[in-house]
Structures are given as structure tokens and as C-alpha cells.
Write a structure and sequence with these properties.
- Keywords: Coiled coil.
- With about 110 residues, the chain is mainly alpha-helical.
- It has one domain.
- Helix content is about 95%, strand content about 0%.
- It is rod-shaped.
């Protein structure tokens, strides 16, 4: 009888682990989609702002005005690039934390066996 209950408890443990892995995977997918969507949205906003600046620059005839528009455009592009870098850094840090948690879980699991 104890052999049967041991098998049942092993099955329950395996099912719990499987559920945890599935939950973890489903949590990762929306986060990746959200990050991708935000990145696209920022790129679109930057492109629209760049177009507006370009159109304003064309409308202005003074070289000083054109220079100011170019400086604004460069600043906008630099800020956009800085945001991309910060997002990538945050994503890498999140992945590192996730890997560390998985590593700790693996250690705990290995110590149980």
C-alpha cells in the first residue's frame, strides 16, 4: 500500500512542477509581447516627431532655424536610443534574475533527491 501512495505523491509532485513550468512560461510570453509592443510604439512616435521636425525645418528658411531643428532631431534620436538601451538592460537583468531563481530551484530540487 505504501508503494502506491509513494507513486501517487511522486505523480503529484511531478504534476505540480509541470504546472509551475507552464505558469512560468505563460508569464514570460505576455511580458515579451508587451516589451515588443512598447518598442514599436516608441519607434513610431520617434518617427512621427522626426517627420514633424523635418517638415518644420523645410518650412523655415533661416539657417539658424534649420540648425535648431537638426539639434532637436538629434536629441530626440539620442533619447530614443538611450531608452532602447535602458529597456535592453532591464530585460537582461530580468532574465538574469529569472535564471538565478531557476538555478536556486534546481539546487533545492537536487537537494531533495
Amino acid at each position: 500500500m505504501s508503494g502506491g501512495s509513494e507513486e501517487e505523491s511522486e505523480k503529484v509532485m511531478l504534476l505540480d512542477e509541470l504546472i509551475a513550468l507552464i505558469d512560468e512560461r505563460t508569464a514570460r510570453i505576455p511580458a515579451a509581447k508587451t516589451t515588443e509592443g512598447l518598442k514599436r510604439q516608441r519607434e513610431e512616435e520617434a518617427l512621427l516627431a522626426a517627420r514633424r521636425l523635418t517638415m518644420d525645418t523645410r518650412a523655415e528658411s533661416s539657417p539658424h532655424q534649420k540648425r535648431r531643428g537638426e539639434v532637436e532631431l538629434k536629441g530626440l534620436l539620442i533619447r530614443r536610443k538611450e531608452k532602447e538601451i535602458a529597456d535592453k538592460k532591464a530585460e537582461r537583468e530580468e532574465l538574469a534574475l529569472q535564471r538565478a531563481r531557476e538555478h536556486e530551484e534546481d539546487k533545492i530540487e537536487a537537494s531533495r533527491q
